[in-house]
Amino acid sequence: MQSRPLDALCGWSGRIDEACSGMDIGILGGGIAGLSVALALHRQGHRVHVYERRTGPATMGAGVTLWPNAGFVLQELGVLQDVAAVGGRPVSVQRRDAAGESLGGLDITLLDRIMGYPTHTILRRDLQAVLLDHVARARIPVSFGHRAVAVALDDHGRAVARFENGTHTRPDLLIGADGRMNSVARSFVAGDNTPIYQGFVNWIGIAQADDALVSDIGIQDYWGRGDRFGCVAIRTDQVYWAAAQARPLPAATPATALQGEVMDLFAAWPEPVTRLIAATPARSIQRIAVHDLEPLDTWSRANVLLVGDAAHAPLPTSGQGACQALEDAWHLARYLDGNGCLHAALQRFTALRAPKAAKLAEQGRMFARGLFANDPETCRIRNERARASDPVRDAHAMAQGWSLGLPMADSIEQASTDGAGSLYRL
Ligand SMILES: Cc1cc2nc3c(=O)[nH]c(=O)nc-3n(C[C@H](O)[C@H](O)[C@H](O)COP(=O)(O)OP(=O)(O)OC[C@H]3O[C@@H](n4cnc5c(N)ncnc54)[C@H](O)[C@@H]3O)c2cc1C
């Protein structure tokens, strides 16, 4: 399916109530959602074309943690081995306060065993490269330099996406995977695409050294008052990090000043915090004013469907944005299996996915409220609760929440009622 000049528009013979097999599918956005949805729908026998506004593969950003629900989808898509080859296998989350005192943590190996799939940490550029490689091997076309500027219905009620470069596409199904900040598809589906600033900024970076920066492959999460520093190892000598601070929506800071800004803020925090900031190339540090989107009940209009952040952008504090984008891919392919009409498939897909995505978005907001609280008493109570938490119960609760709707959910329910001893059967 090629994008065509606008004057080549002709009538649409397809209908939203026709069977959804062997469709032409156009995807706006070649991020984690767009590429994974492309792979899943291609395997289902559809003809897929990805349109990405960037002129080439993304090299920006730091990393993501792909929890076991994502591991399941990656395995189903046939990309897990390649993710494992460039990613890390974290063993634990260790929480500490800004003085370095332990606030408990999570045994990730236990979570992985409960869910039956691995957690991986990976640089964003590496995940993007793995997905793009599989897309290329499947001969799925990706048109870079295609920024969608509008989606509208033609005279036959079929969606047309127009691109800044003057071309357009009018597929059987148009999928909006164009992210959280200015989704053209979300604007068409929901009538609004305004992201909400949630009151904190992230500085992100990738620290790299000749020698080990941290002692093991894990996640270290430091909680202060209104600020936080999280570091995630891919290898002991390669660690991505996200520093965060509650503040009003900031004006832009020159990129060259960001390392000094974040170093000043976290200078008194325990190691490895300053070591990681210092081991990060200054020019690669980014600052993000963190926004999310209000959950939607309806993810489709006519033959346009939203997936990934365009549908359900949670805060990074949910830890689940990319994982949920991957879940979208797996579920959507099951609904677009050629049985039933497109309209019913899109409705069923949304009915299954929207409640889970909305719950995770809400959890992300709640966690952020506690994390970025400023008054000492709230922080003291938060830290006490974290210290008193039971890591085995937490692993079960996370496994239950994150497996919802996936095939491993039933066995996890069983494992929890059987008690901790049965966990080790996986
Ligand atoms: C600091 C931070 C840390 C995070 N950590 C984690 C984590 O540990 N685990 C996790 O699961 N999630 C994490 N997330 C969330 C995760 O990054 C997102 O949820 C995920 O990237 C969503 O993927 P997406 O493809 O929907 O959107 P995006 O990654 O934003 O991709 C959208 C794509 O669409 C393209 N595009 C945009 N507009 C247009 C247009 N008009 N036309 C054509 N193309 C367009 C963009 O260029 C981009 O390539 C984190 C997020 C942040 C900010």
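^ flavin-adenine dinucleotide complex. The pocket of flavin-adenine dinucleotide is lined by residues 28-34, 51-54, 58, 64-65, 146-148, 177-179, 184, 202, 204, 242, 288, 308-309, 316, 319-323, 325 (CB under 6 Å). The first strand starts at residue 4 and ends at 5.
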